[in-house]
Amino acid sequence: MKISIAAPDIGEEEKKAVMEVMDSGIIAAGPKVAEFEKAFAEYCGTKYGIAVSSGTAALHVALLANGVGPGDEVITSPFTFIASANSVLFTGAKPAFADIDVTTFNLDIESVKAKIGKRTKAIMPVHLYGQPCKMDELMELAEENDLAVIEDACQSHGAEFKGKKVGSFGSGCFSFYPTKNMTTSEGGMITTDDERVDKLSRAIRQHGMERRYYHDLLGFNLRSTDIAAAIGLVQLGKLDGYNAKRIDNARRLTEGIRNEKIRPPRVMEDAKHVFHQYTVLCEDRDDTIKALEGAEIGYGIYYPLPIHQQPYYLELGYREKIEIAEKTAKHCLSLPVHPKVTESDTDLICDTLNSI
Length: 356
What we know:
The chain has two domains: 12-234, Aspartate Aminotransferase, domain 2 (3-Layer(aba) Sandwich); 239-354, Aspartate Aminotransferase, domain 1. Helices cover 39% and strands 15% of the residues. It contains twelve helices and 15 strands. The protein has helices at residues 12-24, 31-44, 55-65, 83-90, 109-115, 135-144, 195-204, 226-256, 285-294, 311-315, 323-331, 343-354, and strands at 48-52, 73-76, 94-97, 120-124, 148-152, 160-161, 164-165, 171-175, 188-192, 209-211, 214-215, 262-263, 271-272, 278-282, 332-335. The strands form four sheets. Strands 1-9-8-5-4-2-3 form a seven-stranded mixed beta sheet, with helices on both faces. A three-stranded antiparallel beta sheet has the order 7-6-13, with no helix packed on it. α8 (226-256) crosses α12 (343-354). The longest helix is centred in the C-terminal third of the chain and has 31 residues, at 226-256. The radius of gyration is 20 Å and the shape is globular. It starts with 11 loop residues before the first helix and ends with a helix.
């Protein structure tokens, strides 16, 4: 494709940082991990940051550290990457799927309310595509029902709701996969103001150890590395610039798309959307894809099948109909918006869509 759907930006600064770590001889979890944790927590506005091996690991560990386990239910979205729900299953708990808002693709508050029951332990809002959820309403709902909040912020580094960064409302979980707004190649981070969650997360990620070779609880090997942290520190310094470029590309696309059969994404009031993906709704997705392929423009379908309709979840007995999530999955389409997309690229994308 002339214009790719994603393009990680790794420069000389990242290469130099990695080589410095390699030359130091400390390539597993060491001082760079600690430095990255501190810097990322400060960026998000939280007291603590806990680096782990992936965004999925961040979700898994954060759930456990918040006391989620067998017999519990966690309310989350069916319209997201499957790791959100799978991480709940890893704990022995059960995902309870609420529907989404047709405008933002994020959890619908009234649907969340309807899902709260005796077994509900936590709410996991997903800040999908880089747009934050309505965190004031969700936090109020959680407080009223004594529920933990685990933010799936894996796609929303730097996003804000009412001036406050995602990951600073509950226990935040981030992914640093190469296609994200910033990367460490693979990796994740938990952010929190809760000292107990911080302490437990650090133990869980390292075989249940608080003191070396003394295992107080069942843990895992989910550590990050100094190599990943070195990349992350450089990328974190570039994140605001990356996001500004994504936001500008999104603006150009929204202003340029005039085809009434294609609905551009809508940014919620009081939100800073950082456009991990620029996702439109198409009346006819197949025709739209055909036009994009003809112009050699990359695209993505995130996500073609809601989680509750995935084969494994059908085996688990999920049969409910979740109307808006199912409809959205049939019409969503993501367009290139990453920082390497140029003005001429956005012009071509708009011209191609307007010609359908």
